[in-house]
């Protein structure tokens, strides 16, 4: 018997590989235990690998059981544990210690190992089960070794794995944990805010949004720099904590991407799906549920350009993850919960033809229909609506650089540290996640400020849903100023970040 695991979302659950040979009947092997077609095919790869590695294959009927039977098994990661279980079954004394390790890996026909996805999840499973270690291909080992307190053994072939288990070959365990180098600053080659010309008001709004973890909507004509600004947002986000980094790696590992050869950037994720994306592509799913774009953007930025062009049904599936920070997907193969705590940054034109006030040829009704493609409940979850005006020729020709990302990040980090202290001992991390109770506690304003806010909402015809959003944004602006209380200037700045409410009402 060999121990392995099955991926469920970003986690792994135990799977035991049992082999029974010497059964009466026609000589062939059968795989049972709810395997997919790819797993059923594994027996042919395994038998070829065994022969080409110098090991005998069973001469009689053989049953290979992947337990538990109710759990759907997919992918080629069971090749190596099946092969080792077959070798153990063919030996009088078996392979000593095989059940003490968790094993995963794909095999080539020649017996060489190939990487599999989910190395982090499998390594965590081995740690939680108290295994002596995990045996995986070298490429998968680099990722698995990021989990502390787990001995990771790299095997390049089936023969090497067999000799290691028989005590004939020594393998040095890989046990790195999370190196500090992985958490260093983003490389200097990353996009920097210094490259953004003009748009001082938009830059300020972006800083406020990042400081409080608020969702952001940029409204402006083509060429105003909306996409350019959005792509630079990760460069001013707070430095990743070790737990955040491992969460990101777990999601990417479950989707088949690894840190091998630097294939995964060390900064915060930035995902920008096309507006033709499906619901499943956005939130995740499949026969065996896997991560979608919102999970791949976990602890980073999800950028939706041309927001009204997305299918309304696709946008509506964002509402629950934006509130809860995760997404639950139910399929016949099981139910998984995937992390999805992202900062939504969306961009749209002010009108169907792309032009703003005084320039658009679209009628008022056409503009309202265009903006109505984005539902009110979704807009309710976007704290800042900011106009990005077209740049003048003088601004485009100007050689003066804007403020670089590094000092902006320092201010953002200071504001985030204040929020971490404020919400210590709770599940909250940023001001954007505050509920009604926290708003009453941390966003108190004076009677005069309350009258000012009420007057502004009536005069600007802001919707009622904007009230709490304004208070949360005002709290973030106060944090950027390291102010203990929300001041009138903070409130006034927060009010101006609801331009779409005002425009729609008008």
Top keywords for this entry?
Rossmann fold, Ribosomal Protein S5, domain 2, four-stranded mixed beta sheet, 22 helices, alpha/beta, 506 residues, 3 domains, 18 strands
Topology:
Blueprint: E1 2-8, E2 11-23, E3 29-32, H1 37-40, H2 42-52, E4 61-67, H3 79-90, E5 101-103, E6 106-107, E7 113-114, H4 119-128, E8 133-136, H5 138-144, E9 152-154, H6 158-165, H7 200-212, E10 216-219, H8 226-231, H9 242-254, E11 270-271, H10 279-283, E12 284-285, E13 290-291, H11 293-296, E14 301-304, H12 312-316, H13 319-324, E15 326-331, E16 334-339, E17 343-348, H14 364-371, H15 376-379, E18 384-387, H16 393-397, H17 405-422, H18 436-442, H19 447-459, H20 466-480, H21 488-495, H22 499-505
Helix pairs in contact: 2-3, 4-5, 7-17, 7-20, 19-21, 20-21
Write a concise synopsis of the structure shown:
The chain is of the alpha/beta class and 506 residues long. The protein has 22 helices and 18 strands.
Provide a descriptive summary of the structure in words.
By secondary structure, the protein is of the alpha/beta class. It folds into 3 domains: 2-165, Ribosomal Protein S5, domain 2; 193-405, Rossmann fold, CATH 3.40.50.300; 434-506, no CATH class. It contains 22 helices and 18 strands. β6 and β7 (113-114) form a beta hairpin. α2 (42-52) packs across α3 (79-90). The longest helix has 18 residues, at 405-422. The radius of gyration is 28 Å and the shape is elongated. The relative contact order is 0.10.
